[in-house]
Each structure stands twice: as structure tokens, then as C-alpha cells.
């Protein structure tokens, strides 16, 4: 696919996405590498725009340069964002009670602490990313390993086999401590993302090094 066609496909998909206002988002493409510029009114819109771009066939990489601009008479104060974030974490049954700390600086939320599962780390981020006034999010929650590397490897490989989106024969899994490395080749970006999701579903994973090629 040529860059002009890919750019138009991305623009059309952004316009089609109801949860974002694409009027102020700019797209440029060079050799399949997409640069996303402009501004949106919330952090969740910024993340959604990135997800939309990633799911388009032909995208080989993304440079995310969207700015979050909070509109209104006044910005939400950091202490108010922090207070509401703590409440959201306390109310979320998927987040370990009292295990996550929140820091807010100029609208940027940083989460720290420990969790046993990746889904708990993701749930903590999901609980706060849509709060009014949030311009960015750093999820620094640590995953505490609770299973052996061999067990993790088997769980990931089994998850690959169950995933309908994924042809897993060309993917190799390497596990060292809480770090997982994926190698091999898939046909599309969505397959690569499916492999990442399957890998993150295993307990105790701290880092994921995705070396899967697309082609």
C-alpha cells in the first residue's frame, strides 16, 4: 500500500470513530511510518486516536505527537485530580486495595505500587485515564512474579493457540524472570498486538520485548 492511500485510510477511520473529534488531528505518512499531530481535549481521546491508527492495515510504526489541551474556564487542580483518582482506584474491584499510589503534577498522573497480575495494572490505568483534567499517564506499577519462567512460557504459548486472531506458529517465546521476549514474524500489526495481549495475560510479567516482524 502506498503512503497516500494509507494516509487517507487513517483519516477516514479517525473521522468514523465516534469517541474522538478528529478535526484538529493531522496525519502524515512516510514509508508506512505514521506521524500523528494536532490536539484533542482529553487524554482518553489521545489514546483512542493512537489505537485507531495502529489497527489500520499497512501501518508499520507510529510517532505520537498529539497534545492534550484542556478546554473550559479553568483547569482542574492537581489535588482534585489526585483525590478523584484515589477514589476511583478504591472503588475498582480489579485493583489491589491500598497497593497503588497516585501522584499528579500539572495534570500528568503517575501510578506506582505493586500488583500480581497485568490486568490489575491495566485496570488501575483504566480507572483514572478518563478523569477530567488528566493530560497524560505514566503507569509505573510493578508486577510481582508469582510463577516460574517455564510456567509463564507455557501459559503464553497456550494463549497463542486459543487466540483466533493469531497464527502462532511463527512466534517464539523467551522468558527470563519477569521479562518476556517475543520473536518471529506475523502478517499484520493486529496479529502482533494480539500476540502482545496474549503475553501480557500471563501472571508475573514485568516487561515485554516485542521483536516480532511484520511482513
UniProtKB/TrEMBL annotation:
<dbReference type="InterPro" id="IPR051686">
    <property type="entry name" value="Lipoprotein_DolP"/>
</dbReference>
<feature type="domain" description="BON">
    <location>
        <begin position="148"/>
        <end position="215"/>
    </location>
</feature>
<feature type="domain" description="BON">
    <location>
        <begin position="77"/>
        <end position="145"/>
    </location>
</feature>
<keyword id="KW-0732">Signal</keyword>
<feature type="domain" description="BON">
    <location>
        <begin position="2"/>
        <end position="70"/>
    </location>
</feature>
<dbReference type="InterPro" id="IPR014004">
    <property type="entry name" value="Transpt-assoc_nodulatn_dom_bac"/>
</dbReference>
<dbReference type="InterPro" id="IPR007055">
    <property type="entry name" value="BON_dom"/>
</dbReference>
<protein>
    <submittedName>
        <fullName>BON domain-containing protein</fullName>
    </submittedName>
</protein>
<dbReference type="Pfam" id="PF04972">
    <property type="entry name" value="BON"/>
</dbReference>
Amino acid at each position: 500500500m502506498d503512503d497516500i492511500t494509507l494516509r487517507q485510510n487513517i483519516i477516514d477511520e479517525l473521522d468514523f470513530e465516534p469517541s474522538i473529534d478528529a478535526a484538529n488531528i493531522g496525519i502524515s505518512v512516510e514509508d508506512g511510518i505514521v506521524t500523528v499531530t494536532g490536539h484533542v481535549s482529553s487524554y482518553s481521546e489521545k489514546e483512542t486516536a493512537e489505537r485507531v491508527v495502529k489497527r489500520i492495515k499497512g501501518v508499520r510504526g507510529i510517532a505520537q505527537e498529539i497534545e492534550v489541551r484542556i478546554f473550559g474556564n479553568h483547569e482542574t487542580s492537581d489535588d482534585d485530580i489526585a483525590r478523584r483518582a484515589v477514589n476511583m482506584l478504591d472503588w475498582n474491584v480489579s485493583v489491589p486495595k491500598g497497593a497503588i499510589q497516585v501522584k499528579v503534577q500539572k495534570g500528568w498522573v503517575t501510578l506506582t505500587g505493586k500488583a500480581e497480575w497485568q490486568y490489575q495494572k491495566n485496570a488501575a490505568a483504566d480507572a483514572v485515564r478518563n478523569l477530567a483534567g488528566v493530560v497524560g499517564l505514566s503507569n509505573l506499577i510493578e508486577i510481582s512474579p508469582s510463577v516460574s519462567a517455564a510456567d509463564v512460557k507455557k501459559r503464553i504459548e497456550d494463549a497463542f493457540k486459543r487466540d483466533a486472531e493469531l497464527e502462532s506458529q511463527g512466534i517464539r517465546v523467551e522468558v527470563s524472570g519477569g521479562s518476556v521476549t517475543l520473536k518471529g514474524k506475523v502478517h499484520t500489526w493486529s496479529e502482533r498486538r494480539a500476540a502482545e495481549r496474549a503475553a501480557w495475560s500471563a501472571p508475573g510479567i514485568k516487561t515485554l520485548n516485542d521483536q516480532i516482524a511484520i511482513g
